[in-house]
UniProtKB/TrEMBL annotation:
Its main location: membrane. It is found in: Membrane. This is MFS general substrate transporter. Keywords: Membrane, Transmembrane, Transmembrane helix. One of its GO terms (molecular function) is transmembrane transporter activity. It holds the Pfam family MFS_1. The lineage of its organism: Eukaryota, Fungi, Dikarya, Ascomycota, Pezizomycotina. Residues 26-450 form the Major facilitator superfamily (MFS) profile domain. InterPro entries: MFS, MFS_dom, MFS_trans_sf. The chain crosses the membrane at residues 25-44, 64-84, 96-117, 123-143, 150-170, 182-202, 254-280, 292-312, 333-352, 358-384, 391-412, 424-443. It comes from the Eukaryota. The keyword Membrane applies. It is a multi-pass membrane protein. GO terms for cellular component: membrane.
Length: 458
């Protein structure tokens, strides 16, 4: 974009960054709530035995399929949705998701066969990843870089807190009093409010699409404005953007490194999800509903991490920008070093706390959750700052890697803790986490050199 045109766009009232704070935050909060509700569709997991009986299936492998099939949509969705959103904009994929998600929830809630349930559960995952992907991608569309840290923290609240509040707490409460089907009916009812609200409130926020709409007919060779954008878009969707997430992973070491690091860190979280309730039942003899409340420790840790890291990221980045006179995405990374130490500390505490009072597990899991947010938030905010125009593809590339591993990693929880126990099993994970401390130091100190030396061809 020519410099004059760029300066004009920066001051244009149609630029979402120049919208009123109320208008921008309304969009972000709506998507945060949507992600929270969508993430709670895992709430039927405490009633898996009832699910399998009602669906006339009895295999343990099929039982695992009812959970993991949802991540299939997470694996496929970013490859399709991210490029489309960077050609046609954010609005219409979100509208499709707001229709698709409640419809699939209703079908799953009323299904009486495993095949029908599994098919629409996978489609539900595809719709859910649209919210997970485009919510954070909208943050750089509507927020100045010095305010993105807090906005990104709030945006991730829904997707992070949903699993800790949904399955172990809300799911146990609903299933104990009604049926597993009502965990899905509840989400469908919530979307009955969210979807009309979204159609009324959401607007297009992607800058290149908005600029194309306002382009005059006398631009370039005086051809009508609709001719070139349409031709360019159709060509682009079948050439460049379609493979952009994969190209980022292959040609950008920075994207690949953060994809690997966030995948490993999320792996620890998934193993905690798989074992926290079980530990409280097996070791401390809690009831299933009481064990579900233990997940609130993760919720508290996530909230502390989000509302400490976000404001700190903004203030530190602004301070360094004033000092150096230039903004670097690497100014977002210092919390990584803290997270690299807090994560193994939480894992050690969580593992060996099983020999002591159950409150030790609560503290250990909360400490881990703070460390997780210290690793995850700076990583994603860094990618958003590095590729603001292609944030959906950058986040999507990392999401695909995390989702593929997330579909299989919980299966390792049983053998790991059966062979090593909760104490040494979590200690092994902590030692692996400690091995990545030099990795975070290198990224923090030399990330700009790596980024500038290997720019991806987007």
């Amino acid at each position: 974009m020519p410099r004059d045109a760029k300066d004009e766009w920066c001051s244009d009232t149609t630029n979402p960054i120049n919208w009123s704070s109320r208008r921008r935050w309304t969009i972000l909060l709506l998507l945060t709530i949507t992600n929270l509700v969508a993430a709670m569709t895992t709430a039927f997991e405490p009633g898996l035995d009832d699910v399998m009986r009602d669906l006339h299936a009895h295999s343990k492998s099929l039982e695992a399929l009812t959970i993991s099939i949802y991540t299939l949509g997470y694996c496929i969705g970013p490859i399709i949705v991210a490029p489309i959103s960077e050609v046609y904009g954010r609005l219409w994929p979100l509208r499709v998701a707001y229709v698709m998600f409640p419809v699939t929830s209703v079908i799953c809630a009323s299904s009486h066969g495993l095949v029908l349930f599994a098919i629409f559960r996978a489609i539900m995952g595809f719709a859910g990843i649209i919210f997970v992907l485009l919510g954070p991608a909208i943050v750089p569309d509507v927020m100045m870089k010095e305010k993105r840290g807090l906005a990104w923290s709030i945006m991730t609240t829904g997707a992070i807190l949903g699993p800790t509040l949904g399955s172990p707490i809300m799911g146990g409460f609903i299933i104990e009093r009604t049926s597993w089907r009502w965990t899905l009916w509840s989400c469908a009812i919530a979307f009955g409010v969210l979807s009309p609200t979204a159609f009324f409130i959401l607007e297009e926020t992607y800058g290149p699409v908005l600029q194309a709409r306002t382009r005059t007919e006398t631009e370039l060779d005086n051809r009508p404005v609709i001719e070139e954008p349409l031709r360019v878009r159709v060509a682009a969707i079948f050439k460049g953007p379609r493979v952009r997430p994969a190209r980022m992973l292959i040609h950008s070491p920075i994207v690949l490194l953060f994809a690997i690091y966030t995948t490993i860190t999320q792996g620890y979280l998934l193993l905690l999800f798989a074992t926290l309730g079980t530990m409280f039942q097996d070791v401390y003899h809690f009831s299933p509903q009481g064990a579900g409340l233990a997940y609130l420790s993760l919720t508290v840790g996530f909230i502390i991490g989000q509302f400490v890291i976000g404001p700190y990221s903004n203030s530190y980045s602004s301070k360094m920008e004033r000092r150096s006179g230039v903004h670097k995405p690497e100014y977002r990374l210092p919390p990584l070093n803290a997270g690299a130490l807090i994560v193994p500390a939480g894992l050690f505490w969580y593992g060996w706390g099983s020999h002591l009072h159950w409150m030790m597990l609560i503290f250990g899991s909360a400490i881990f959750a703070v460390g997780y947010m210290s690793a995850f938030l700076p990583s994603m905010t860094y990618l958003v700052d590095t590729y603001p125009q292609h944030a959906a593809s950058a986040i999507g590339a990392c999401t695909v890697v995390r989702s593929i591993c997330g579909a299989f990693l919980p299966l390792a929880a049983g053998p790991l803790y059966r062979d090593l126990g909760y104490d040494w099993g979590n200690s092994l994970l902590a030692f692996v986490a400690l091995a990545f401390v030099p990795f975070t130091v290198i990224l923090t100190r030399y990330g700009d050199r790596i980024r500038l030396r290997y720019p991806p061809n987007l």
